[in-house]
Specification:
This protein is mostly helical. Helices cover 71% and strands 1% of the residues. Among the domains are: 12-67, no CATH class; 80-163, Arc Repressor Mutant, subunit A, CATH 1.10.10.10; 427-550. The protein is built from 29 helices and three strands. It is globular, with a radius of gyration of 27 Å.
Amino acid sequence: MQPGFQLTPANARAVAEICVRLDGLPLAIELAAARIRLLPPQALLGRLSQRLAVLTSGPRNLPVRQQTLRNTLTLSYDLLEHEEQQVFRQLSVFAGDWTLEAAEVVVHTHRPPDRASVSVLDAVASLLDTSLLVQVEKPGEEPRLLMLETVREYGLECLQDSGEEAAVHERHAYYFLTVAEEAEIHLTRPEQEVWQERLSREEANLRAALAWCKATPDAVEIGLRLAGALCYYWFLQSALHEGRTWLEAMLARTGSTDRSAARGRALFGAGLLTWAEGNIEAATRCLEESQSICRESGDQRYTSYAEMILGNVLSRQGNNVQARHLSEESHSRLKGLGDDAWDEAFTLYDKGIIAYHSGDPAAARTHCEESLRLFRKIGEARYASLVLSALLVIVASQGDEEMVRSLYQQSLPLMQQARNRGRLGLFLINNGEMWLHSYGDEPLAKVLYRQGLILWRDMQQGGQGIGIVKALAGLAEIAAAQGKAERAGRLFGAAAYLLPSDDSLERQDVNGRVAAARVKLDTAAFEAGLCAGQGMTQEQAMTDALQDGQ
C-alpha cells in the first residue's frame, strides 16, 4: 500500500475507471490498491486489460487463496461440478450480456450417463448462486445473463486450456449470424424498430463474433455473411465508419475471383455505407461489382438495391436518363417479387428523388405521394416521415405554398406515431447528412435536419448528443454555402461545444468542416459567431438553429 496516497482531481477519474474495470469487486480493488505504490492510477489503468496478471501480491495477512485474484477464482472454479465447469468456461465466450436461449445453443457439455439430466439451465442456476454469473433485468424484457469482465478473463483462460475454444467460438459466431440474418429482412419492414433494438442489445456479441471471424482463417464466409447481414443495421444506427471498417476487413480476405452470394452482399453493404459517407468513387466500385455478382447468383433483391444506389450516383453526376432507367428497373424487379409492400414504397421514393434531381418535379411529386400513401398504409412512420420531408421540398419548388403548409401540419402527428421518436429524430438527421454529402442537396438536407430537431424539441428530448451535433453542423455547413458567416460560425461553435472533449471521429469531422468554412467566409463575422455559439446550452443551440430556417 501507499499510506500517503490521496484522491485528487488529477487522479479521481482514473481511480473511478479502475473500480469500474474491476466490476466493483472488493478483493480486486484491494489488490489493485496494493499496486499503487509502484504504479500511479493512470499507469495501472493501462495494464488492466490483463487483470489476473496484474492483481497479485495482496496483503500477507490475507489467506493464500485471496492473495491473488486468480487464486480466488480458481478456488471457486474448483468447487464446481465437472459439467458446471464446462458451462462456465464456455459461457466466457459471450461479451456483454446475453439470453438464456443463446447460452443453450452455444454451450455443449459432455455428460456421463449418471449426469445426463444436468442441463445448461441447471448449471446456469448454480453459477448464479455462486456469483460467477449475474442476472440483468430490464422492464419488459427477458432477464439476461452477464459475466463480470474480471471473471470472464479467467473463464477465457480456462476455455483456452480446455481444447474447446475453437468449437465454442464457432458456435457463438453461427448463433449470432442466425440472429443477424433473421433481423436483416425485418429491418426493411414496419417492425424494423423492434429488430433494430434487438440488434442493439446484442452489439457486444456481434462485435465479438466479427472479431473472431476476422482472426480465423477458416471463417471467411461466416464473416462475410455476418457483416453483410448487418450493413443496413449500421446504416440505421449511423455507424457508417464502424460498419464500413468491418466490411472492408472481411472483403480484404477474399479475391476478385470469389463470386459468392456472401461476397456480393458484403460488397453491397460496403458500397451503401461508403456512399452514405460521401465517397462516391469508392462506393461505385463496390456497388458495380455487387450488382454483377448478385445478378449472376440470381439475387434479385440485392441486384435491385445496388441499382437503386447506382442510379442515385448517376443522377448526381448528371446522367439522368440512365439514372431513371436504373430506378425504374429496380422498381419493376422488386414489384415483380410480389412479396414486399415496403420495397415497393421505398423504390417509389427513390424514383421520386431521382426525378426531382432530374428536373421533373411533377413526376417526383407523383412518385413520392404514392410512396407516402403506401408507407402510411403499412404503418411505417419512420419512412413516411422521410418521404413527407422530400415532398415538402418538391412541393415548395413548385410554389405550392398551401400544400407546403398542409404537409408541415401533417408532419408532427406522423412523427409522433413512431415507436421510438428519439430514434426517428436521429434517423431524419442522418438522412440529412447523407443528402448533403452524397448529393449536395441543401434544401432536402435542411428540411431533414430541422424535422429531427423539431421532434426532439417538442418531446423535450435532451441527451441526443451526437445527433444534435450533426444537425447543428449540417445547418452550419448550409449557412456557410449561402455565405452567412456569422450564422455558420454560431452553429459550428455550438456543435463543437456540445461534443465530448476526446479526439473522436465526430470532433475530427466538425473540425474539418469548420476549417473548410473558415477559408471562404468573412473571418471577423465567422469568428464572432464561433465564439457566441460556444457559450450556448443545448436548448439555446436548438432554438437558434430552428430560427432563420423556414
